[in-house]
Amino acid sequence: MGGEHTRAAAHRVAVLAEETRAVAARVASASGIRWRSTAADAFRGRLAEQAADVRRAAESLDAAAEALARHAWVLEQVFAVAP
Amino acid sequence: MSDLVVRGGAGGTAARLDDLAAAAALLRSCGGDLLRVGAALLAVGADPLLQATTLVSPLTALAADGALAAATVGPRGVGAVGARLMALGCAVGAVERLYAATDAVCTEAVHQADLAAGRVVGTALAPFTPVLVGSAAVAGAAAPQLDPDGRLAGRAGDIAMSVMGRYGDVTEHVVDALPGVVTGVLGPSLGAGVAWSGAAGTRWPPGDIAAGARLVGAAGFAVPALRDGGSVRVTMGPVRPAVPLRGMAELTERIVGCTPAAGAGPGTVRVEAVVGADGRRAWVVSIPGMQTMSGGGNPFDLAGSVHGMAGEQTAAHATVLQAMHAAGVRHGEPVLLAGHSLGGIVAAGLASDARFRSQFDVTHVLTVGSPIGGFPIPDRVQVLAIEHSDDPVPRLDGRPNPDRPGWVTVQRTLTPPASAVSGVVAHELGGYSQTAALVEASRHPSVEAWRAGLTPFLDRPGATAWAVDVRGERSGVAVAP
Predict the structure, then answer these.
(1) Distance between start and end Cα atoms, chain A
(2) Measured between CA atoms, how close is A55 to chain B, in angstroms?
(3) B positions 43-102 inside 8 Å of A (CB)
(4) Do A64 and B64 touch (CB under 8 A)?
(5) pLDDT-derived band of residue A1, with 50, 70 and 90 as boundaries?
(6) Cβ pair A5, A75 in contact under 8 A
(7) N or C: which end of chain A has fewer CB within 10 A?
(8) End-to-end alpha-carbon separation of chain B, Å?
C-alpha cells in the first residue's frame, strides 16, 4: 500500500522534472530577440545562466524522483515479506 | 547599400522593444511555472501517507525527504530559480516600459520646444504683421508686371527648396514651430485666432502641422488656389493588358506612368490588377504628385496638398476612391497604394481613413518624397516611406516618421553638397527611382521583411495583369478631353 503510494509520488516528481526541463527550453528561446547592443549581449549571457540553473533544478527533481523510487522499492520489499 | 539609412520596421527600435516586452513576459511566465512546480513538490513532501512510511524504512525515507527539500527550497531548487526568473522578467519589463516612456517624453518635449520657439518668433513679429501682410499683398499684385513669366518666382522657389533640403533637420523643426508662430502672431488678437480656427474646424491654438494646414486651407474662401471642393467626376480609360510588377522598384515607374510627362492626362491615377493562377486578385494603385499650383479641374494641385496635409478628404482622395470602385476593387482583395509627394499624402490619408478601409483592404503603402509622419495609419498596414534627406518635401510634416514594426523609413542623400538645385532634383521622381532600385537590393532586415509581404502584387508563375487609367476632374470645372 505504502509502496504504491510512494511510487506514484516518485512518478509525479518525475513529471514535474520534465515540466521544468520544458521551462528551461523556453527560457533559452528568449535569447532570440533582435536587440543588439552590449547590454543585449549581457542579457543573453544572463539568460543562458538562468536556463542552466533551470536545467540543474530539473536534475535535482530527477534526484528526488529517484530517491522516492528507491524508497518505494524498499517499502514494496518490506510489505512483500511482512505477514 | 551603405548610403541608405533605414529606420523602423521589423529591425527597428520599436520591434526590438516589442521583443524585449515579449522576453519579459516569457521570463515572468517561466518563473510562475517553476513556482507552481515548487508548490506541487511541497504538496508531495507534506503528504501524511508518505510521512508515515518513514517508520517502515527511515533511511530511504530521510534520503527522499532530503532530495525533495533540496529540489524545492534549496539554493538551486525550483523555488529559488523561479523567483530569480520572476525578478529578471520584472526588471526587463520595467526597462522596456522606461525606454518607451522616455522616447515618448523626449519626442513630445522636442515638439513643445519647437512650438514655444515659434510662439516667441510670432510674438516678436506681431507688431509688424500689418506691414508684412501689406507688403505681401503689394508684391502679389505687382508680380504679373515685375515677373510676367514667373521666372523670378520659380528661381526663388528653387533656391528655397535647395536651402530647405540642405538643412533638412532644421527645416523639420522650423515646420514643427510654424503653428507656434501663427499662435504668437495672432496672440494680441485672440478673437481672430479663435474665429479663424473655428472657420477651419480646428482648435485654437494649433498644436501640429495638420491643424496649421487646416488654418491655411481655410483661407480658400479668399484665395482660389487653396480651394478644394472634395468632389470629382472621373473618366475611365480603356482596360489594357499589363505586365505584373517584377519588384518593388517598378512601383516608382508605375507612378511616373501616371504623369502628364509620360503622356497621361492631368489628374490621372492608375489601378492595376494582378491576378494569380488561382484567380485571386491584388491591386496596385499608383498616385501622382502635385502637377500644378492652381489646378482648376486638376485635383493634384496646391489646394489638394494643403487640404491633404490637414488630413481632409480632397478631390484627389475622391479620384482614387472612385477609380478603385470603377476598376472593380472589392473588399478582401489586398491593395497597395503607391504615391509620390502629394500622391503619398493621398495614399497615407486614405490608409488612415476608417471609412475607406471599410470599403477596401489596404495592406501596403509605399510613399516617395511625401510628408506622412503625422498620419494615423493603423499598425496592420505595412508602410514603406522612401525619403531623400536633401528633399525638403518629406520634412514638411515637421516630425520624423514613427519607428514601429509595420513602418519602414529609408533615407538617402541624393545630391552632392553645395548643389544649386539640390532640393528640386532631390524631390524629382527620377532620383527616387534610382533610390527605389537600391532599396530593392537592400539586405536590411526591415526592408527584406517589407518586401516579403509584396508577393500577392508581384509577377509569379501563372499571374496576369491588367491596368486602367482613371482621370479625375473637380466637379463643375470643364477639362479638355
Answers:
(1) 14
(2) 10
(3) 44, 47, 49-50, 52-53, 56-57, 60-61, 63-64, 66-68, 70-71, 74, 76-78, 81, 84-85, 88, 92
(4) yes
(5) low
(6) no
(7) C
(8) 45
pLDDT in tens, B222-278: 777 788 876 899 999 999 999 999 988 899 999 999 999 999 999 999 999 999 999
Distance separating alpha carbons of residues B17 and B82, to the nearest angstrom: 24
Query: Of all helices (H) and strands (E), which one includes residue B462?
Result: none
Q: Do the Cβ atoms of B70 and A64 come within 8 Å? A: yes
| B45, B66 contact by CB (below 8 A) | no
Within 10 A of B294 (CB to CB), how many other CB atoms are there? Answer: 13
How far away is chain A from the Cα of B184, in angstroms, using its nearest Cα?
44
Q: Across the interface, do B77 and A60 touch by the CB < 8 Å criterion?
A: yes
Closest residue in B to A17 (Cα) is: B37
Q: Give chain B positions within 8 Å (CB) of A57.
A: 34, 71, 76-78, 81
Q: What percentage of residues in chain A have a pLDDT greater than 90?
A: 67
B445 in A contact zone (CB under 8 Å): yes
Residue range B57-116, pLDDT digits in tens? 999 999 999 999 999 998 889 999 999 999 999 998 998 898 888 888 888 899 899 999
Residue B383 CB neighbours (<10 A) = 28
Considering only alpha carbons, which residue of chain A is nearest residue B31?
A23
Contacts (Cβ under 8 Å, ≥6 apart) of B65: B45, B54
Would you list the DSSP string of B368-394? ES---TT----TTSEEEEEEETT-SGG
ipTM: 0.93
Long-range contacts of B277-281 (CB under 8 A, 24+ apart): B277/B460, B277/B461, B277/B462, B277/B463, B280/B333, B280/B456, B281/B330, B281/B333
Q: Kindly report the nearest CA distance between residue B170 and chain A, in angstroms.
A: 30
Helix (H) or strand (E) holding B153: helix B151-166
> In terms of DSSP H, where are the helices of B365-459?
422-427, 429-441, 445-452
Maximum separation of any 2 CA atoms in chain B, in Å: 117
Task: Choose among A13, A63, A71: nearest Cβ to B60.
Answer: A71
| Residue carrying C-alpha cell 534526484 | A63
Whether residue A78 contacts residue A4, with contact meaning beta carbons closer than 8 Å, is answered with no
Place of cell 524522483: A65
